[in-house]
Amino acid sequence: MDSNFISNLLLATVRMAVPLIFIATAELYSERAGMVNIGLEGLAAIGSLVGFLMCYITGSAWIGILCGALAGILVNMIYAFATVTLCANHTVYGMAINIFAPALASFINRIYFGAGSQLNQIKLMDTVNISGLKDIPFIGPLLFNQTPMVYLAFALVIFTSIFFNRTKAGLNYKAVGEHPKAAATLGIPVIRIKYLSCVICGALCGIGGAYLTTCYSNTFTEGNIAGRGFIGLAAVIFGRWSAAGVMLACLFFGFCDALQIRLQVMSIGIPYQFFQMIPYVATIIVLSILGGKKSGPAAKGQPYRPEER
């Protein structure tokens, strides 16, 4: 384990944390408005396929990212209508999205490309190289030799932290997740904010999924989300429902994922399936230690009926 190994491990940690940051931040916006959306896995799956497909057709990774976000929004509107307008159970419809969206992505993929074994590939988004700075040991590759989506992910964390803690709109937004009826008496549009949270959640999840096929891997494979939606849920709890905490949690889980890949290729005589368990075992351990210490927004997961007093 030399300096080159550590440098590559840290670089991989950042790249693997980026989709988690988008997905976990999506859930943060959702839960701050009282919406517990466990359908992140499905939203990321449809974003991944649509992002890849549009990049394949147009040759533009940016169009793929945008279309992935739009696909996430459209699918999440099913969840939004059922839970906000019809006041249905959040968990049931979140699981419905997790079943429906990956199946839809698989169907579209097989219809467009066929069911053969041909591997369709695209050109990944180019990295942004800052001359001189990217050659700084350790720090250079991490900060100055990444795709624009990496910088966008960390900018999103900064914006989210400022929005929720330093702006009136952000405080109104959080009030909807804490006590929607009290918020409504102050003139805050509760229903509108809940729908807005679903739009933001769908968009960010779609971007997280599209990142995997336009910036990380140059092809789409079924099941490529690989539990990142559920890890994103854990990251919100681990991060104590704060933007900075969510980012640190995603970096931790990204490190676990990067470490297990490198341990697999070291050929140390242990079955590779053991190493593949590391991110998920880490998730379980984190939830068992921190899951019950703070419950998050008081009204999360509760239906809001304006006619009730």
Structural write-up:
The protein is mainly α and 309 residues long. The chain has a single domain (3-113, 143-290), classed as ABC transporter involved in vitamin B12 uptake, BtuC (Orthogonal Bundle), CATH 1.10.3470.10. Helix content is 71%, strand content 1%. The chain is built from 13 helices and two strands, in the order ααααβαβαααααααα. The chain has helices at residues 3-32, 40-58, 61-85, 90-113, 139-144, 148-166, 168-178, 180-185, 190-216, 228-238, 243-265, 272-276, 278-290; strands at residues 128-129, 145-146. Strands 1-2 form a two-stranded antiparallel sheet. Helix 10 (228-238) packs across helix 11 and helix 11 packs antiparallel against helix 13. It is globular. 44% of the residues are buried.
Summed up, what is this model?
The chain is mainly α. It has 13 helices and two strands, in the order ααααβαβαααααααα. The chain has one domain: ABC transporter involved in vitamin B12 uptake, BtuC, CATH 1.10.3470.
Structural class: mainly alpha
How much β-strand is present in the residues?
under 5%
Order of the strands making up the biggest sheet: 1-2
Number of discrete helical segments: 13
CATH class: Mainly Alpha
In CATH, the topology is named: ABC transporter involved in vitamin B12 uptake, BtuC
Report, as a whole number of angstroms, the end-to-end distance. Answer: 63 Å
How is the biggest beta sheet arranged? 2 strands, antiparallel
CA radius of gyration is 20 Å
- Give the SSE order as H and E letters: HHHHEHEHHHHHHHH
Uncertain stretches of 5 or more adjacent residues: none
How many structural domains are formed by the residues? 1
Helical content stands at over 70%
Report the average pLDDT across residues: 89
Total strand segments: 2
Q: At CATH's second level, what is the architecture?
A: Orthogonal Bundle
Shape: globular
